[in-house]
Amino acid sequence: MIKKLSGLLFSILIALSFTVSVCAEEPKDADPDKEGFQYIHDPMEYPSAAQDIVVNPNAVYGYSPNPESKRLGKFADEIDWSDPDAVAKAREERQEYHDSLKELYTMIDQMEQENCTTEEIARAVSKRRNEIRFEAYKDDPEGLELMKQSNLETYGNENGPTIESLYEKYGSWEMIIQKALSPNAGMDACLGFYDQNYDQYVMLDQLAEKEEKAVLDTGVEPAPEYYTVVSGDSLWKLGRMYYDDGNKWQAIYELNRDQIREPSVIYPGMVLHMPAYGN
C-alpha cells in the first residue's frame, strides 16, 4: 500500500511554495530606519511568535528573543539586538535560511511525482531540514554551538529532532512535513521578516487545524508508528483498537506483507508497522 500526500496537503504545499518563491524574488524589506517602524501584523498576537520573544523598544525591529524561551532563549544575548549592523548581518543569514526552504518544496514535488510515500517524503524532508540548519552556521562556530545547545535542550539531541521523536510528537507524517516547512515566527519578528512571511504562517496554521479537525470528526487518534503483537491479538482487533474499524485490518496487512504470510495468523512479538490514521 502506498500512502501519498493528501490532495489538501499537496495543494497547500504548492501554494506555500509559490509564497516562498515570491517572497524570495521580491522581498518586502522592513525598513528599521523608517520613523515609527512597526509591523502591519502584530507578532504578539500570534502565539507561536509571542512565546519566544519580548517587546524591546531599543531593538532594531522592536523585538528580541525572550531569555526564558526554550527555543530562542540562548539567542537573547548572542548579539546586541539594538545594533543595526549586528542585526543586519543576522538578517542576511536568516534570508539565506528562508531561501533554502525552496529546496524542500522542490524535494517534495519531485518525490511526489516519483510516487514516494508520505512517510518517505517526511523522512527525507526532516533529514534535509536538519542539515540546512547546520549549513547555515558553517562560518559561525559560536552560533553553531548555541544552536546545538538549543537543540539539546529542546529535543534532547544536539543534531535536532529525530524522525521517531517527531512522529511520536505529531502523530502523522503529514504533520511532520508541515512542521519542517514552518519558520520560527519569533526569530522572523526579531529580524524584520514577520510581515513578509505572515501569509505562510497563516496557511500552515490552517493546515494544522484541518489535520486536527480530521481527527475530531472521525474520532480516531493517530496510530502509533509501530506496534508489538501480544497474545490474543488479530489484525481485525488492531483495526478496531486503533482505527475504530475492524476492516482496517487490510491496510495493516498490506503494510506488513513481508512478515505476515496469512492475514488470519499473527504471532506475539511481531513488530507491525501501523498505517497513519489507518489509511
Features:
Membrane-bound Lytic Murein Transglycosylase D, Chain A, 279 residues, two-stranded antiparallel sheet, 4 strands, mainly alpha, 11 helices, two-stranded antiparallel ribbon, 52% helix, elongated
Summarize the amount of helix as a percent range. 40-55%
Tell how many strands the DSSP assignment holds: 4
Order of helices and strands: HHEEHHHHHHHEHHE
Q: How many alpha or pi helices? A: 11
| Rg over C-alpha atoms, rounded to the nearest angstrom | 22 Å
Strand percentage: under 5%
Output mean pLDDT. 79
Strands of the biggest beta sheet: in what spatial order?
1-2
Q: Pairing-aware structural class of the strands and helices? A: mainly alpha
Low-confidence segments, given as residue ranges, are none
Q: What does this entry look like structurally?
A:
The protein folds into two domains: 7-218, no CATH class; 226-278, Membrane-bound Lytic Murein Transglycosylase D, Chain A (Roll), CATH 3.10.350.10. Helices cover 52% and strands 4% of the residues. It has eleven helices and four strands. A hairpin with a 7-residue loop joins strand 1 and strand 2. The termini are close together.
In short:
It is built from eleven helices and four strands; from the N terminus they run ααββαααααααβααβ. The chain is mostly helical.
Summarize the SSE layout with pairings.
Layout: H1 7-25, H2 47-50, E1 53-55, E2 63-65, H3 84-113, H4 118-135, H5 141-155, H6 163-170, H7 173-180, H8 185-190, H9 198-218, E3 226-228, H10 235-243, H11 249-255, E4 271-273
Antiparallel strand pairs: 1-2, 3-4
